[in-house]
Specification:
- Helix content is about 35%, strand content about 25%.
- The chain starts with a helix and ends in a 6-residue tail after the last helix.
- It contains eight helices and 14 strands.
- The chain is an alpha+beta fold.
- Helix 4 packs across helix 8.
Length: about 290
């Protein structure tokens, strides 16, 4: 099954790379403000689904663009697909995007493939057998102190997102770390945590296809994944925290109060911090 997923990811990557040669010719539509879909997303998703269902016609599909309209929705085996994670990067020619494919069997993640077509980097994992990048075993970072760590995140961009809450969260994290990055493709961000290129990742508003493959990569590479409170299941919670075990333990006390699953006191503290930030942003500049 992993080999079939790799075949599907590489076929999608070929479509993406051909389109990247002339991005300005790509047809783009907008699902909502700042949320784009291109014909490349759709063509990539189509070839992935065709490849998977040709091999496993009884399996189910959960894909970003077409949802559960293909395959058997009642199957024990469900392929979770993001055909082009980082579409906004792609349409701007910013070379950080990927194909993400995961297989969930009776609710458990069993196989994962993340393919970066710009670098020809292939990340794979099978439950219980470890995680690999280009056939080389990978492990999460060995750093133990949060202040030495480089973390990745995603910024809010949808209408209705709580910007002040997120700015407060980022402020809490940034002052405790060596750096914070926003590359723009959550699946690839998670793969980089698994490979030890970054030490952790957190983001709100994610969907299962953003997280599934990367989550299995991280757990097979020795890391931990959950929602912001440190609890699961996280795929349906729209929030993701991932890191090596020691860094994860230092991040949970920071992120948990920003979780929609947090306790009353934690939520009150996060709300107060966000309101304080909102007032300070709205206040006129002090005279020189």
């Amino acid at each position: 099954m992993l080999n079939v997923a790799v075949k599907a990811a590489r076929a999608a990557g070929a479509i993406i790379n051909r389109a990247a040669l002339d991005v300005e010719a790509v047809r783009i539509s907008q699902k909502q403000v700042n949320d784009f879909v291109t014909e490349v997303d759709q063509n990539s998703e189509r070839v992935i689904i065709e490849t998977l269902l040709t091999a496993y016609p009884d399996h189910g599909i959960l894909a970003e663009e077409s949802g559960s309209t293909h395959g058997n929705p009642n199957a024990d085996h469900i392929w979770i697909i993001d055909p082009l994670d980082g579409t906004t990067n792609f349409i701007h020619g910013f070379p950080y995007y990927c194909v993400s494919i995961a297989l969930q069997v009776q609710g458990r993640l069993e196989q994962a493939v993340i393919y970066d077509p710009t670098r020809n980097d292939l990340f794979t994992a099978t439950k219980g057998r470890g995680a690999f990048m280009n056939d080389r075993r990978i492990r999460v970072s060995k750093r133990t102190r949060l202040e030495e760590c480089l973390l990745a995140t995603g910024f809010p961009f949808r209408p209705g997102d709580d910007f002040n809450k997120y700015l407060s969260l980022m402020g809490d994290v940034m002052q405790r770390t060596a750096g914070l990055r926003r590359p723009g493709a959550a699946a690839l961000d998670l793969a980089y945590v698994a490979a030890g290129f970054s030490d952790g990742f957190f983001e709100l508003g994610l969907k299962p296809w953003d997280m599934a493959a990367g989550a299995l990569l991280i757990t097979e590479a020795g890391g931990l994944v959950s929602n912001f409170t440190g609890e699961g299941p996280y795929l349906e919670h729209e929030e993701c925290l991932a890191a090596s075990p020691r860094i994860y333990a230092q991040l949970v006390p920071i992120t948990q109060k920003y979780s929609k699953f947090a306790g009353v006191d934690d939520k009150r503290a996060a709300s107060t911090a966000a309101k304080t930030l909102s007032v300070s942003r709205a206040a006129p500049d002090a005279p020189l």
